[in-house]
Amino acid sequence: MRLEPFRDKAAGSKNRIAQTAQLPAPTKGWYVGANMAEAPEGTAYLLQNVFPQLDYIRVRRGSQAWAVGMPSNVVNTLMPWQNAASSKMFAVCGGNIYDVSSIGTVPAAMVTLGNSQLESGNKAAAKKTFSEIVAKYPDTEAAKDAQQLLAATK
Q1: Measuring CA to CA, which residue among 119, 71, 79 is closest to residue 95?
Q2: Is the per-residue pLDDT at 98 higher than 70?
């Protein structure tokens, strides 16, 4: 691949070849459509650390440590938990599960695991989806699979 210079030295000209362009701030928000070429004017397909305002974008002002005292490993999984009376947040870091529901120093690990890559989900929502598949598509392969998954989530 041959790189082109910003100035045309061969022609003896000292004029710049590169041209500047002004890009308006994406004040109309985030575009999540399929075709980027058809994105409405004033939208962005990536908003990283900025928040669109009426006529400008505001840069995110940093972050604040929430849970401290875990190993210096990366937190691979965050798992929210909620029942009728309370809610909690758990973090999986360095093969251990920590309760990070409140700000400050994290108590000792609750559970030690083989790795930190976990999945969590809403069991009630999964059961509802499987039941809908069975009801909507009876006597199909998908319904049979959904019935097996429904039996496993009970």
Answers
A1: 71
A2: yes
Does 77 map to a domain? yes
What sign does the CA torsion over 114, 120, 123, 128 have?
A: negative
Same domain, residue pair 21 and 59: yes
- 38: domain range? 17-63
- Rounded Cα distance between 56 and 124, Å, is 42
Structure tokens at 147: 């019935």
CB 113 within 8 A of CB 95: yes
Q: d(Cα 154, Cα 44) in Å, to the nearest integer?
A: 43
Give 17-71 pLDDT, tens digit per residue. 677 888 788 888 888 887 888 888 888 888 888 888 888 888 888 878 888 888 8
Residue 46 lies in a domain: yes
Give the per-residue pLDDT at 63: 79
**pTM of this structure:** 0.47
Q: What is the C-alpha to C-alpha distance for residues 47 and 30, in angstroms, rounded to an integer?
A: 7
Distance CA 74, CA 70 (A): 10
Position 1 in a domain: no
